Amino acid sequence: MGKHRYGVILDAGSSGSRVYIYRWLNAQAARAKDGVEDVAQLPEIKTKKKWRKKVHPGISTFGPKPERVGPDHLKELVAFALEQVPADEVPNTPIFLLATAGMRLLPDDQSAAVLENTCAYFQKETNFQLPDCGLHVQVIPGETEGLYGWIAANYLLGGFDAPEKHDHGKGHHTYGFLDMGGASAQIAFAPNSTEAGKHANDLKLLRLRKINGDALEYKVFVTTWLGFGANEARRRYVQGLLDSYPHAQELPDPCLPTGLTVNQTGSTFAECLKRTFPLLEKERHCDDAPCLLNGQHTPAIDFDVNHFVGVSEYWHTTHEMFAMAHKDKAYDFHTYQKQVTEFCSRDWRDIVSDVGAQKWGSKVDEKTVEEVCFKASWLINMLHDGIGVPRIGLEPVNEPGHGHANKTKAVLDSAKERGFLDPFQAVDKIDGTEVSWTLGKMVLYASSRMPAADDALAVGFGSNTAGKNLPADFQYAGGKYEALPTDLDDGAGEDDWHDRIFNGSYSRRGPGIAIFMIIVVFAVYLLCGRERRLSLYHKALSLIGRRSGTRRRKPPGFLNSKLFGGTSPTYERVLESGNPDDFELSDIDDEPASGSSNGLEAPRTGRSSGWATPAASRSFSPDVSRQSPKNKGYFDSSGSHGLGITPFDRGGLVVRTESKERLAPRDAGRSRTSSPTRKSPLMAPFKESVD
């Protein structure tokens, strides 16, 4: 096993699925790189632009035909991943498929069927590490998406590894995270100490692990506003126009450039801002004060210490057209509003002419410029009237002596030394790496692969509860609920003992199996008791031609006295209870069994590089007799909690998967089946519109 570890994540969105591949050094290599044992930082995650690929349409379109999701959707993405990950690392590389908005809209039965078929495809057609489909193949709620984004932003900015360089005051050194897609918007931030104390029950406990095994803990508030994404806000806005002009043939829309509609009075951006403000729904009743939007509770934001970065629509709407000359130009309200006002006052025909001339680049088409006035208005309202971000350029902030309008790429270049100076900054990449929630997920997973220091708790997130006991809704980084094994010997500790013996890459596989079987058979033979040993001995003699049941000489010496029970003549006896076959060891095979009498393959259990996958509930296990009672309760929970995954019934998945494998032609190259899938006791999906 090499010094690098790999991870594969499929971001299954509403419009398509994109595969991301990440790489990092294992603990031994990471410590050797820095030349010190005590490396007090998170694993360094690497990715490349060529390690990403997207296919269309979205996975949710397979709801009515889930059996086609593998060959018609996943096949191309999996083939691409296999081209990038070294072949000998594939069995040690976890694969995740995390679905977002599109899958949240599907009926529960269709969503479950798509996930089941996805899991079955991964198990049958790939050899990627997949210890638990319930955690590796799931629909994630908006809150989880926001939390992963918060991890990614702080990881890239350096807030985790160098807190002293990101001191925002009041002991605060992390950045807030804002994300806006087509259907929803998310916010995630660590409140100041006062607000954290007031709203402790509303926070999520996040735990990461450094290379040296020390834990990092953060208490983060995260929420999602369903229907507050750019596309859904536009839909609600148009519906409002239709309700206001029920009999009109043409609707006056101040959020479109002049001349795009028969609005003879002309459009003004100020009017568009006024019309979009009610979409914030700030008038809704707040049951748990304070609230920002839609009556949803949010702790008060201290913008003296909470500096936010915004991605997705926040970046595209502020930079795609209005900052082409400065890709990393800092945002300020005064400059941005002036640019948008000037653009939206132009005649539509002139704008179309500029699109044809590619004034804003080849990616900006007529649809983009048609929507930008509304999106800019919505973004401004969300940021300043909704979330409360100070209007830089108009409103004072507690950072005197710094100019704002002229800051450019230096803001990002210096982020790791001094942090952002502004309460809000739109970003797309930091140090050349895309700020993606998938990166946050992989940071969490990679940190869980670092050997834990003494008394270090599991890596993951859940409810903010006191004490060392993990909350009931705690979600582990990747399907593991016990302490992870060390890989400081560059692979020797990566697998459990039985996996190391039977793994095809193990250099002494043959002798290891032989020695292991001899030891086990001999030990079982000694434990059988004198009468059963004697019966087995006679049976062995009969198999080689000796007649059983006749008088014979006793075996001389030690073997007779110690193993076969005394010195007197012995005769074959019929056992009154038991069966000699009970003491024959069943085969342990890492690959499909061959030569079975009925031509069927024996079911196999998957492995996960040493991860002791918890026992499934009885409705899911193909062999209930082998379940561990102490593990059963963990996955028997039927509730759904916190930021967890979407539980769904995979009872039929194991049966179908095994049935298909047993009926299929033998192929030595096929991957082994992973552990039976299981229900997760964690969070149910949100019903959300398309991103």
UniProtKB/TrEMBL annotation:
Annotated segments matching region Disordered: 576-691
InterPro entries referenced in this protein's UniProt entry, alphabetically: GDA1_CD39_NTPase
Cellular component, GO annotation: Golgi apparatus; membrane
Active site residues according to the UniProt entry: E145 (proton acceptor)
Composition-biased stretches (Polar residues): 606-630
One GO term of the biological process aspect: UDP catabolic process
Top EC group: hydrolase
MF (Gene Ontology): apyrase activity; ATP binding; GDP phosphatase activity; ribonucleoside triphosphate phosphatase activity; UDP phosphatase activity
CDD domains per the UniProt record, alphabetical: ASKHA_NBD_YND1-like
Record-listed E.C. numbers: 3.6.1.5
Basic and acidic residues biased stretches: 657-670
The entry's keywords: ATP-binding, Hydrolase, Membrane, Nucleotide-binding, Transmembrane, Transmembrane helix
Domain of life the protein comes from: Eukaryota
Pfam families: GDA1_CD39 (PF01150)
Positions with biased composition (Low complexity): 671-681
Record-linked PANTHER family: ADENOSINE/GUANOSINE DIPHOSPHATASE (PTHR11782), NUCLEOSIDE-DIPHOSPHATASE MIG-23 (PTHR11782:SF121)
Family: Belongs to the GDA1/CD39 NTPase family.
Protein name: Golgi apyrase
The species this protein was found in: Recurvomyces mirabilis
Lineage: Eukaryota, Fungi, Dikarya, Ascomycota, Pezizomycotina
